Amino acid sequence: MRLARERRFELSNILTIAGLFLALTSPSLGHSRSDHGYVWKKCERPELEGITIPFDKDGKFLPECAPDTLYSWKSRAALDSILANMTPDNLYPMDGGNYYSGVYLWRTPLGTFGYGDTLLRFKLKSNVKFAEVDRGSRDCNLQKFVDETVYVIHLRDSVALDYLICSPKVIASWSFGRPEILEEMTAELEWTTEHDTKDFDRYAKSKRGVPGSSLVKAIPVDGKDFSQEALERNFANIVASIKKNEGKIFFAQDLDADPLTHFSTRRPNYFNHRPSNEPQFSRANVSKRATRALYRQSVIRAISLQRGEFKSDVAVRPEPSLEGETVWLASVYPSSSTYSPCRYRIYFGGPRSKAIPLTPSRIETIDGSCDKGHENK
Prior knowledge:
The protein has 377 residues and is α+β, with helices and mostly antiparallel strands. The protein folds into two domains: 13-29 and 284-365, no CATH class; 38-263, no CATH class. The chain has helices at residues 17-23, 76-85, 179-194, 228-243, 259-263, 283-307; strands at 69-74, 103-105, 118-124, 129-134, 149-154, 160-165, 171-176, 209-210, 213-217, 248-251, 314-319, 325-332, 342-351, 362-365. Strands 1-3-7-10 form a four-stranded antiparallel sheet. It has a four-stranded mixed sheet with strand order 2-6-5-4, with no helix packed on it. A four-stranded antiparallel sheet has the order 11-12-13-14, with helices on one face. Strand 5 and strand 6 form a beta hairpin. Helix 1 crosses helix 6, helix 3 packs parallel to helix 6 (283-307) and helix 4 packs antiparallel against helix 6 (283-307). The chain starts with 16 loop residues before the first helix and ends in a 12-residue tail after the last strand.
Protein backbone atom coordinates (compact mmCIF):
# COMPACT_ATOMS: atom_id res chain seq x y z
CA MET A 1 0.00 0.00 0.00
CA ARG A 2 1.19 3.47 -0.80
CA LEU A 3 2.08 5.39 2.35
CA ALA A 4 4.12 8.55 2.66
CA ARG A 5 7.80 7.88 3.29
CA GLU A 6 8.25 9.68 6.54
CA ARG A 7 10.75 9.40 9.33
CA ARG A 8 9.41 7.80 12.47
CA PHE A 9 10.04 9.13 15.87
CA GLU A 10 8.72 8.40 19.30
CA LEU A 11 6.60 11.02 20.99
CA SER A 12 7.86 11.68 24.47
CA ASN A 13 5.91 10.16 27.34
CA ILE A 14 4.24 13.56 27.59
CA LEU A 15 1.18 12.57 25.62
CA THR A 16 0.66 9.34 27.61
CA ILE A 17 -1.30 7.78 24.79
CA ALA A 18 -2.57 4.93 26.96
CA GLY A 19 -4.70 7.09 29.23
CA LEU A 20 -5.81 9.46 26.49
CA PHE A 21 -6.80 6.70 24.07
CA LEU A 22 -9.12 5.03 26.56
CA ALA A 23 -11.02 8.31 26.87
CA LEU A 24 -11.60 8.48 23.12
CA THR A 25 -14.41 5.98 22.73
CA SER A 26 -17.20 7.67 20.81
CA PRO A 27 -17.50 7.73 16.99
CA SER A 28 -16.86 11.07 15.36
CA LEU A 29 -17.53 12.73 12.04
CA GLY A 30 -15.18 15.50 13.02
CA HIS A 31 -15.88 18.81 14.66
CA SER A 32 -18.56 21.23 13.58
CA ARG A 33 -17.86 22.93 10.27
CA SER A 34 -19.23 26.23 11.38
CA ASP A 35 -18.69 29.49 9.56
CA HIS A 36 -17.02 31.12 12.56
CA GLY A 37 -14.27 33.39 11.41
CA TYR A 38 -15.33 33.54 7.79
CA VAL A 39 -15.34 37.31 8.04
CA TRP A 40 -11.65 37.09 7.14
CA LYS A 41 -12.53 35.72 3.68
CA LYS A 42 -13.36 39.21 2.48
CA CYS A 43 -9.80 40.22 3.37
CA GLU A 44 -8.21 37.88 0.83
CA ARG A 45 -6.01 39.31 -1.89
CA PRO A 46 -6.28 37.19 -5.08
CA GLU A 47 -2.95 38.46 -6.41
CA LEU A 48 -1.35 37.25 -3.16
CA GLU A 49 -2.73 33.75 -3.72
CA GLY A 50 -5.58 34.19 -1.26
CA ILE A 51 -3.59 35.29 1.78
CA THR A 52 -5.43 37.74 3.99
CA ILE A 53 -3.82 41.11 4.56
CA PRO A 54 -5.02 44.43 6.06
CA PHE A 55 -4.34 46.42 2.87
CA ASP A 56 -6.03 46.44 -0.51
CA LYS A 57 -4.07 46.23 -3.76
CA ASP A 58 -3.75 50.01 -3.84
CA GLY A 59 -2.23 50.12 -0.36
CA LYS A 60 -5.33 51.39 1.42
CA PHE A 61 -5.52 50.21 5.03
CA LEU A 62 -8.47 47.94 5.89
CA PRO A 63 -9.00 48.10 9.67
CA GLU A 64 -11.55 45.27 9.66
CA CYS A 65 -8.83 42.98 8.28
CA ALA A 66 -6.14 43.87 10.81
CA PRO A 67 -5.47 41.10 13.37
CA ASP A 68 -5.21 41.87 17.06
CA THR A 69 -3.48 38.57 17.84
CA LEU A 70 -0.30 37.19 16.28
CA TYR A 71 1.90 34.14 16.89
CA SER A 72 5.60 33.32 16.78
CA TRP A 73 7.46 30.00 17.17
CA LYS A 74 10.75 30.09 19.09
CA SER A 75 13.21 27.56 20.38
CA ARG A 76 13.02 26.87 24.09
CA ALA A 77 16.51 28.36 24.45
CA ALA A 78 15.32 31.58 22.80
CA LEU A 79 12.33 31.74 25.15
CA ASP A 80 14.57 31.23 28.17
CA SER A 81 16.77 34.09 26.98
CA ILE A 82 13.74 36.36 26.54
CA LEU A 83 12.51 35.55 30.04
CA ALA A 84 15.96 36.16 31.52
CA ASN A 85 16.25 39.60 29.90
CA MET A 86 12.76 40.93 30.66
CA THR A 87 12.50 44.03 32.84
CA PRO A 88 9.52 46.04 34.11
CA ASP A 89 10.16 48.54 31.31
CA ASN A 90 10.79 45.94 28.60
CA LEU A 91 7.82 43.59 28.25
CA TYR A 92 9.43 41.55 25.49
CA PRO A 93 13.16 41.85 24.69
CA MET A 94 13.48 41.85 20.92
CA ASP A 95 15.35 39.04 19.16
CA GLY A 96 19.10 39.25 19.44
CA GLY A 97 18.99 41.36 22.58
CA ASN A 98 18.78 44.58 20.58
CA TYR A 99 15.71 46.62 21.51
CA TYR A 100 14.87 47.20 17.84
CA SER A 101 16.08 43.95 16.26
CA GLY A 102 12.50 42.73 15.85
CA VAL A 103 10.35 39.63 16.12
CA TYR A 104 8.62 37.91 13.19
CA LEU A 105 5.05 36.66 13.59
CA TRP A 106 2.19 35.07 11.67
CA ARG A 107 -1.61 35.26 11.81
CA THR A 108 -2.35 31.68 12.87
CA PRO A 109 -0.95 29.41 15.61
CA LEU A 110 0.35 26.57 13.40
CA GLY A 111 1.22 28.38 10.18
CA THR A 112 4.91 28.75 11.05
CA PHE A 113 5.35 25.74 13.35
CA GLY A 114 8.59 24.74 11.62
CA TYR A 115 10.48 27.73 13.05
CA GLY A 116 10.68 26.50 16.63
CA ASP A 117 9.32 24.19 19.28
CA THR A 118 7.56 26.70 21.56
CA LEU A 119 4.62 28.87 20.49
CA LEU A 120 4.29 32.43 21.77
CA ARG A 121 0.97 34.26 21.54
CA PHE A 122 0.89 38.08 21.27
CA LYS A 123 -2.06 40.39 21.87
CA LEU A 124 -1.53 43.79 20.25
CA LYS A 125 -2.53 47.09 21.78
CA SER A 126 -5.81 48.44 20.44
CA ASN A 127 -4.24 51.62 19.03
CA VAL A 128 -1.51 49.88 17.05
CA LYS A 129 -0.95 50.92 13.41
CA PHE A 130 -0.02 48.74 10.44
CA ALA A 131 2.36 49.54 7.57
CA GLU A 132 3.44 47.61 4.48
CA VAL A 133 7.17 47.19 3.85
CA ASP A 134 8.94 45.24 1.14
CA ARG A 135 11.60 42.64 1.72
CA GLY A 136 14.49 45.01 1.21
CA SER A 137 13.19 47.41 3.87
CA ARG A 138 12.40 45.00 6.67
CA ASP A 139 15.30 46.08 8.91
CA CYS A 140 13.81 47.54 12.09
CA ASN A 141 16.50 50.22 12.11
CA LEU A 142 15.03 51.59 8.86
CA GLN A 143 11.49 51.96 10.19
CA LYS A 144 9.74 54.98 11.62
CA PHE A 145 7.24 55.05 14.48
CA VAL A 146 8.27 51.56 15.66
CA ASP A 147 6.68 52.08 19.08
CA GLU A 148 3.20 52.15 17.55
CA THR A 149 3.47 50.13 14.31
CA VAL A 150 3.27 46.50 13.15
CA TYR A 151 4.86 45.91 9.75
CA VAL A 152 3.50 43.57 7.06
CA ILE A 153 6.32 42.18 4.91
CA HIS A 154 6.15 40.96 1.32
CA LEU A 155 8.90 38.39 0.98
CA ARG A 156 8.08 37.68 -2.66
CA ASP A 157 6.12 39.49 -5.31
CA SER A 158 3.14 37.16 -4.95
CA VAL A 159 3.10 36.21 -1.27
CA ALA A 160 2.81 38.23 1.97
CA LEU A 161 4.41 36.06 4.59
CA ASP A 162 5.36 37.86 7.76
CA TYR A 163 4.36 40.40 10.35
CA LEU A 164 7.19 42.25 12.08
CA ILE A 165 7.26 43.94 15.48
CA CYS A 166 10.20 46.25 16.15
CA SER A 167 9.28 47.45 19.62
CA PRO A 168 7.68 45.82 22.69
CA LYS A 169 5.54 48.93 23.12
CA VAL A 170 2.99 47.65 20.57
CA ILE A 171 2.41 44.53 22.70
CA ALA A 172 -0.46 44.53 25.18
CA SER A 173 0.37 41.05 26.47
CA TRP A 174 2.07 37.82 25.47
CA SER A 175 1.96 34.23 26.68
CA PHE A 176 3.34 30.72 26.29
CA GLY A 177 2.57 27.22 27.56
CA ARG A 178 -1.07 27.90 28.36
CA PRO A 179 -3.97 25.47 27.74
CA GLU A 180 -5.77 28.23 25.81
CA ILE A 181 -2.89 28.23 23.31
CA LEU A 182 -3.10 24.45 22.91
CA GLU A 183 -6.85 24.90 22.36
CA GLU A 184 -6.15 27.32 19.49
CA MET A 185 -3.50 25.04 17.97
CA THR A 186 -5.97 22.16 18.08
CA ALA A 187 -8.79 24.23 16.57
CA GLU A 188 -6.57 25.16 13.64
CA LEU A 189 -5.45 21.57 13.14
CA GLU A 190 -9.07 20.39 13.14
CA TRP A 191 -10.13 23.09 10.69
CA THR A 192 -7.27 22.57 8.24
CA THR A 193 -7.76 18.80 8.39
CA GLU A 194 -11.41 19.04 7.40
CA HIS A 195 -11.36 21.93 4.92
CA ASP A 196 -9.93 22.64 1.53
CA THR A 197 -6.86 24.88 1.40
CA LYS A 198 -8.94 27.76 0.05
CA ASP A 199 -10.72 27.92 3.40
CA PHE A 200 -7.81 28.95 5.60
CA ASP A 201 -4.70 31.10 5.66
CA ARG A 202 -1.54 29.24 4.72
CA TYR A 203 1.93 30.44 5.55
CA ALA A 204 3.69 28.89 2.56
CA LYS A 205 1.92 28.14 -0.72
CA SER A 206 3.74 24.88 -1.36
CA LYS A 207 2.52 22.54 -4.08
CA ARG A 208 4.26 19.78 -2.16
CA GLY A 209 2.04 19.95 0.86
CA VAL A 210 0.80 16.68 2.31
CA PRO A 211 -2.87 15.81 1.58
CA GLY A 212 -5.12 16.25 4.59
CA SER A 213 -3.45 19.40 5.86
CA SER A 214 -1.26 21.83 3.95
CA LEU A 215 0.27 22.81 7.28
CA VAL A 216 2.58 19.83 6.77
CA LYS A 217 5.14 20.13 3.98
CA ALA A 218 6.93 17.32 2.17
CA ILE A 219 10.05 19.48 1.83
CA PRO A 220 11.62 22.11 4.14
CA VAL A 221 10.39 25.70 3.93
CA ASP A 222 13.10 28.34 4.39
CA GLY A 223 15.32 25.51 5.57
CA LYS A 224 12.90 24.68 8.40
CA ASP A 225 11.30 21.34 9.25
CA PHE A 226 7.56 21.38 8.52
CA SER A 227 7.13 17.59 8.69
CA GLN A 228 4.40 15.67 10.46
CA GLU A 229 6.94 14.58 13.06
CA ALA A 230 7.86 18.20 13.84
CA LEU A 231 4.18 19.11 14.20
CA GLU A 232 3.60 16.25 16.64
CA ARG A 233 6.71 17.13 18.65
CA ASN A 234 5.50 20.70 19.03
CA PHE A 235 2.13 19.54 20.30
CA ALA A 236 3.93 17.26 22.77
CA ASN A 237 6.05 20.19 23.97
CA ILE A 238 3.12 22.39 24.91
CA VAL A 239 1.31 19.48 26.58
CA ALA A 240 4.44 18.98 28.68
CA SER A 241 4.55 22.67 29.55
CA ILE A 242 0.89 22.62 30.59
CA LYS A 243 1.38 19.56 32.76
CA LYS A 244 4.29 21.27 34.53
CA ASN A 245 2.21 24.43 34.94
CA GLU A 246 4.99 26.44 33.27
CA GLY A 247 2.71 28.66 31.20
CA LYS A 248 2.62 32.39 31.85
CA ILE A 249 1.00 35.60 30.59
CA PHE A 250 2.87 38.90 30.71
CA PHE A 251 1.10 42.27 30.50
CA ALA A 252 2.19 45.81 29.67
CA GLN A 253 2.50 47.93 32.81
CA ASP A 254 -0.20 50.38 31.74
CA LEU A 255 -2.84 47.67 31.14
CA ASP A 256 -4.94 45.45 33.41
CA ALA A 257 -3.54 41.96 33.88
CA ASP A 258 -6.69 40.11 32.83
CA PRO A 259 -6.24 36.66 31.19
CA LEU A 260 -9.70 36.90 29.61
CA THR A 261 -8.63 40.07 27.82
CA HIS A 262 -5.46 38.42 26.56
CA PHE A 263 -7.32 35.45 25.08
CA SER A 264 -10.24 37.42 23.69
CA THR A 265 -10.19 38.87 20.18
CA ARG A 266 -11.99 41.48 18.12
CA ARG A 267 -11.27 39.37 15.03
CA PRO A 268 -12.66 35.87 15.75
CA ASN A 269 -11.34 33.26 13.38
CA TYR A 270 -11.61 29.52 12.91
CA PHE A 271 -8.88 28.96 15.53
CA ASN A 272 -9.77 31.53 18.22
CA HIS A 273 -13.55 31.83 18.16
CA ARG A 274 -14.70 31.44 21.76
CA PRO A 275 -18.43 31.75 22.44
CA SER A 276 -19.14 33.71 25.61
CA ASN A 277 -21.10 30.76 27.02
CA GLU A 278 -18.34 28.24 26.39
CA PRO A 279 -17.78 26.16 29.54
CA GLN A 280 -14.44 26.38 31.29
CA PHE A 281 -12.20 23.66 29.94
CA SER A 282 -9.80 21.55 31.96
CA ARG A 283 -6.16 20.94 31.08
CA ALA A 284 -6.85 17.22 30.72
CA ASN A 285 -9.72 17.79 28.28
CA VAL A 286 -7.63 20.13 26.12
CA SER A 287 -4.85 17.53 25.92
CA LYS A 288 -7.31 14.78 24.99
CA ARG A 289 -8.83 16.93 22.27
CA ALA A 290 -5.37 17.68 20.88
CA THR A 291 -4.41 14.00 20.81
CA ARG A 292 -7.64 13.07 19.06
CA ALA A 293 -7.14 15.85 16.50
CA LEU A 294 -3.61 14.61 15.75
CA TYR A 295 -4.86 11.06 15.24
CA ARG A 296 -7.70 12.23 13.00
CA GLN A 297 -5.35 14.35 10.92
CA SER A 298 -2.91 11.46 10.58
CA VAL A 299 -5.70 9.09 9.52
CA ILE A 300 -7.08 11.51 6.92
CA ARG A 301 -3.59 12.14 5.54
CA ALA A 302 -2.99 8.40 5.24
CA ILE A 303 -6.34 7.84 3.49
CA SER A 304 -5.74 10.78 1.15
CA LEU A 305 -2.31 9.45 0.22
CA GLN A 306 -3.71 5.96 -0.22
CA ARG A 307 -6.40 7.19 -2.59
CA GLY A 308 -4.37 9.86 -4.35
CA GLU A 309 -6.92 12.55 -3.51
CA PHE A 310 -7.78 14.73 -0.54
CA LYS A 311 -10.71 13.29 1.41
CA SER A 312 -12.14 15.30 4.28
CA ASP A 313 -15.53 13.59 4.52
CA VAL A 314 -14.24 10.75 6.67
CA ALA A 315 -15.78 9.36 9.85
CA VAL A 316 -13.03 8.37 12.27
CA ARG A 317 -13.21 6.47 15.56
CA PRO A 318 -10.82 4.40 17.70
CA GLU A 319 -11.18 0.63 17.81
CA PRO A 320 -10.06 -1.87 20.46
CA SER A 321 -7.26 -4.21 19.47
CA LEU A 322 -6.37 -7.53 21.08
CA GLU A 323 -2.77 -7.13 19.95
CA GLY A 324 -2.44 -3.94 21.97
CA GLU A 325 -1.88 -1.73 18.94
CA THR A 326 -3.60 1.61 18.53
CA VAL A 327 -6.22 1.12 15.80
CA TRP A 328 -8.63 3.57 14.18
CA LEU A 329 -11.50 2.83 11.84
CA ALA A 330 -12.05 5.27 8.95
CA SER A 331 -15.17 5.35 6.77
CA VAL A 332 -14.87 7.33 3.52
CA TYR A 333 -18.22 8.60 2.30
CA PRO A 334 -18.76 8.63 -1.48
CA SER A 335 -20.34 11.57 -3.26
CA SER A 336 -23.31 9.45 -4.37
CA SER A 337 -25.79 8.24 -1.76
CA THR A 338 -26.25 5.01 -3.77
CA TYR A 339 -22.86 3.81 -2.59
CA SER A 340 -21.98 2.64 0.90
CA PRO A 341 -18.95 4.00 2.75
CA CYS A 342 -15.57 2.51 1.99
CA ARG A 343 -13.93 1.44 5.24
CA TYR A 344 -10.30 1.20 6.26
CA ARG A 345 -8.60 0.08 9.44
CA ILE A 346 -5.50 2.15 10.25
CA TYR A 347 -2.84 0.74 12.57
CA PHE A 348 -0.37 2.78 14.59
CA GLY A 349 2.36 0.33 15.55
CA GLY A 350 3.33 -0.21 19.15
CA PRO A 351 1.52 -1.12 22.36
CA ARG A 352 -0.65 1.52 23.97
CA SER A 353 1.39 1.36 27.15
CA LYS A 354 4.21 3.22 25.40
CA ALA A 355 4.47 6.50 23.55
CA ILE A 356 4.10 5.76 19.85
CA PRO A 357 4.51 7.61 16.55
CA LEU A 358 1.37 8.89 14.87
CA THR A 359 2.54 7.76 11.44
CA PRO A 360 0.44 4.69 10.53
CA SER A 361 2.33 1.41 10.34
CA ARG A 362 -0.19 -0.10 7.90
CA ILE A 363 -3.65 0.34 6.37
CA GLU A 364 -6.10 -2.52 5.98
CA THR A 365 -9.05 -2.39 3.59
CA ILE A 366 -12.13 -3.82 5.28
CA ASP A 367 -14.81 -3.70 2.57
CA GLY A 368 -13.53 -5.06 -0.73
CA SER A 369 -12.17 -2.58 -3.27
CA CYS A 370 -11.72 0.93 -1.96
CA ASP A 371 -9.84 2.31 -4.90
CA LYS A 372 -10.50 5.90 -5.89
CA GLY A 373 -13.96 6.22 -7.41
CA HIS A 374 -14.87 2.56 -6.87
CA GLU A 375 -16.71 2.42 -3.57
CA ASN A 376 -18.93 -0.62 -3.08
CA LYS A 377 -22.66 -0.52 -3.58
